[in-house]
């Protein structure tokens, strides 16, 4: 068969299967099979040296079945081709263990190890090996897969690949569907007092006309979203916050009729799907998480299968284990709010491999690479600068035929407060996703 890669590899584990399936099948659109006779191998993943094919000396990580803290000390980055690599094991065609390096990044190995969490107890970008080595903005795993493809084609030109092509899915978190409306009298009076004390003239002028129905609520811009998404034929995934009101969970009540109607409407938009946005407090209680699942189920009539954590609250592996148990199939938390780029070193969906049990799960992680707040707040960019930065990032994803996922909010499309003038940044992403690679 001309699209099958023969691999010579002894003592195979779940980790080998996971990595080979990701690289060969999911990213390169080929097949692979293990061969017992090294003479038939295209890829020799062993310590035996053969005089033909690709020889890759294993680092050893894939043969282990536990989490080992000292692995961190074995990582040092070096240049390779036009990119960088780590886990150097040899000097031939494949001088590093591409397979172990891929596994280390996509299993999020480092997130299981000792690290200094941020104020919300999350793994911070500063702790990551990719940021420390200034390659967080490179889809390394995609680049490695494509480089591997070139090497294989040189040795076996008749091999057939069907690599992934560039894809764009927009994802939106609905933390507060309305800024003023549908929040009840108490929250609005409280908000009014805060606006007075802080002299927020924009809010003072807007609040009453919005509540009286004379003006549209600034956060309620779903009609506009529907229009631009439809114009550019964009696939969207919406995540609704259905928590109880708390310091970090400020959504409209899940009991509110207008809110329920909105969720239904959005689920019926073309190319749109609706998922759950587990609240900040749900991280402290599985009972609360269960309630929120039920709330969304009651509105849509379906069990939620898409999810993203509010505040990107996430701890490895408990958060994902919970979501797997609740039936989530597509999870969207993999990314940072503080930095653009690829938290798992990859711009493509991949399965959650649970290192604590050493098994591949059915849940697929969809990494996002650009969040609305990152250019505005953490990079201190204006909309024009943000457009340029995001264009460069998207070009990198286009070059490797990867998946580009932005994370936006209806708030950042409101053209109000600090988001004035930022709609065009989002609109740029949508339009750019439909244009071919340009400089
Ligand atoms: Zn949120």
Task: Report the order of strands and helices.
Answer: EHEEEEEHHHHEHHHEHEHEHEEEEHHEEH
Proportion of helical residues: 25-40%
Give the number of DSSP strands. Answer: 16
- Could you tell me which ligands this complex binds, including any ions or cofactors? zinc ion
Rg over alpha carbons: 24 Å
Please count the helical segments. 14
Short note summarizing the structure:
By secondary structure, the protein is α/β, with parallel strands linked by helices.
Keywords:
single chain, 439 residues, alpha/beta, 6-stranded parallel beta sheet, 4-stranded parallel beta sheet, 14 helices, elongated, binds zinc ion
Structure characterization notes:
The structure is a single chain. The chain is α/β, with parallel strands linked by helices. It is built from 14 helices and 16 strands. It is elongated. The model has no long low-confidence stretch (mean pLDDT 95). Residues 173, 175, 241, 277, 310 line the site of zinc ion (ZN).
List the helices and strands and how they pair.
Elements (H helix, E strand, L loop, with lengths): L3 E5 L5 H14 L3 E4 L8 E2 L9 E2 L22 E3 L2 E3 L12 H9 L2 H4 L16 H4 L7 H16 L11 E8 L9 H14 L3 H11 L10 H10 L3 E6 L16 H12 L3 E5 L9 H15 L5 E2 L10 H8 L4 E2 L18 E5 L4 E7 L4 E2 L1 H6 L4 H17 L3 E2 L1 E4 L13 H11 L6
Parallel strand pairs: 1-2, 1-3, 3-4, 7-8, 7-15, 7-16, 8-9, 10-11, 11-13, 14-16
Antiparallel strand pairs: 5-6, 12-13
The structure holds zinc ion (ZN).
């Amino acid at each position: 068969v001309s699209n099958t890669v023969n691999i010579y590899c002894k003592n195979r584990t779940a980790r080998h299967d996971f990595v080979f399936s990701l690289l060969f099948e999911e990213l390169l659109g080929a097949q692979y099979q293990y061969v017992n006779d090294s003479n038939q191998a295209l890829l020799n993943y062993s310590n035996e040296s053969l005089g033909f094919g690709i020889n890759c000396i294993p680092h050893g990580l894939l043969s282990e079945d536990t989490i080992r803290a000292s692995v961190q000390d074995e990582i040092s980055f070096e240049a390779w081709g036009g990119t960088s690599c780590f886990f150097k094991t040899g000097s031939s065609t494949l001088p590093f263990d591409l397979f172990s390096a891929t596994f280390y990044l996509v299993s999020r190995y480092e997130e299981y190890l000792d690290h200094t969490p941020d104020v919300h107890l999350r793994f911070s970008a500063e702790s990551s090996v990719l940021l420390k080595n200034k390659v967080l903005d490179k889809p390394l795993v995609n680049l490695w897969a494509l480089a591997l493809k070139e090497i294989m084609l040189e040795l076996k030109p008749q091999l057939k690949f069907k690599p992934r092509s560039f894809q764009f899915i927009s994802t939106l978190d609905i933390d507060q569907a309305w800024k003023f409306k549908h929040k009840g009298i108490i929250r609005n009076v409280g908000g009014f007092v805060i606006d007075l004390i802080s002299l927020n003239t924009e809010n003072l002028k807007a609040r009453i006309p919005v509540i009286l129905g004379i003006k549209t609520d600034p956060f309620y811009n779903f009609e506009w979203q529907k229009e631009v998404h439809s114009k550019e034929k964009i696939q969207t995934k919406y995540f609704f916050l259905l928590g109880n009101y708390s310091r970090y969970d400020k959504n409209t009540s899940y009991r509110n009729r207008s809110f329920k109607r909105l969720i239904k409407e959005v689920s019926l938009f073309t190319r749109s799907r609706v998922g759950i946005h587990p609240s900040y407090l749900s991280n402290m209680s599985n009972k609360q998480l269960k309630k929120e699942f039920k709330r969304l189920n009651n509105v849509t009539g379906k069990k939620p299968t898409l999810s993203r954590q509010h505040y990107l609250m996430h701890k490895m592996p408990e958060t994902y284990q919970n979501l797997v148990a609740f039936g989530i199939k597509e999870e969207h938390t993999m990314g940072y709010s503080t930095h653009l780029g690829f938290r798992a070193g990859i711009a493509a969906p991949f399965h959650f491999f649970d290192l604590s049990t050493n098994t591949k799960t059915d849940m697929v992680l969809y990494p996002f690479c650009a969040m609305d707040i990152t250019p505005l707040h953490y990079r201190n960019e204006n909309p024009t600068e943000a457009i340029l930065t995001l264009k460069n990032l998207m070009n990198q994803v286009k070059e490797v035929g990867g998946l580009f996922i932005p994370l936006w909010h209806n708030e950042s499309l409101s053209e109000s407060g600090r988001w004035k003038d930022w709609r065009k940044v989002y609109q740029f992403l949508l339009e750019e996703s439909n244009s071919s690679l340009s400089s």
